[in-house]
Amino acid sequence: MKALILAAGYATRLYPLTKDRPKPLLSIAGKPILEYIMERLKRVEEIDTVYLITNGKFIPDFQNWLANFKIKKRVKALNDGSTCDDDKLGAIGDIGFVLEKERIDD
Fold this sequence. Notes:
- By secondary structure, the protein is of the alpha/beta class.
- Helix content is about 30%, strand content about 20%.
- It has a single domain, classed as Spore Coat Polysaccharide Biosynthesis Protein SpsA, Chain A, CATH 3.90.550.10.
- The radius of gyration is 14 Å and the shape is globular.
- The termini are close together.
């Protein structure tokens, strides 16, 4: 089973907090929001791969975070190619993007 985390938005309504940091990496009680999600996904044995779909602006932030986050599951950060709020793919577009790019059919 695959898990998709859609994190390709620009969180403009949370500026200035999210001007240079993606919303899933904002800290709550000392750790990024994304860690709470990943901790839940760790418990689902059937999930073998987690795809984190983001954008061109924030892909380096997620890659840096992933380099330091320990999980036994395979986690792959994908850049959907958007660079601003005006050219983002949206949730359905990002799902289609990862399904096609990774040839997921299960």
